[in-house]
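Blinded run. Sample ID left blank on purpose so nobody reads anything into the name before looking at the predicted structure. Input follows.
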Amino acid sequence: MTALVGGDAARPDRCAEKSPAGEALATMFSQGSVHYWRRVAVSIVSYISQILPSVGSVYEGGLWMVPMLNSLADAGGTLRGIWDEGPADTAKLSEFLRTTVLPFAEHPSVDIRSVQTADGEQVVTDVENVLRMLGAVK
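Blinded prediction complete.
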């Protein structure tokens, strides 16, 4: 490698003599730095080697997860759309509750004025008799 880069002059211990960048290279490739990076690599690999066996079956047979993850992504996009429309829907819901549900909860009654068939025939008396049989009307 030394010969490829530029011969004996490109060695890390000799680069420091030429420029500040050479000093940085000499520090990066010194024995202490090489030892440090080797220890970091060993530490990381040891942690990953403990984690990977538990993930291995999912990693090897994880092809089945692709449709599920695509489905989750689509669901997330849909939920995002619902979340963005939330404030406008909240105002509509609040109005519905104030004008319809709360007044009915205070005075629960239904005033049926007209019941018609598809032909336009009034059937209020028949409906009133059915409701009376069910005990809904006295």
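Unblinding after everyone has recorded impressions. The chain has a mean pLDDT of 77.
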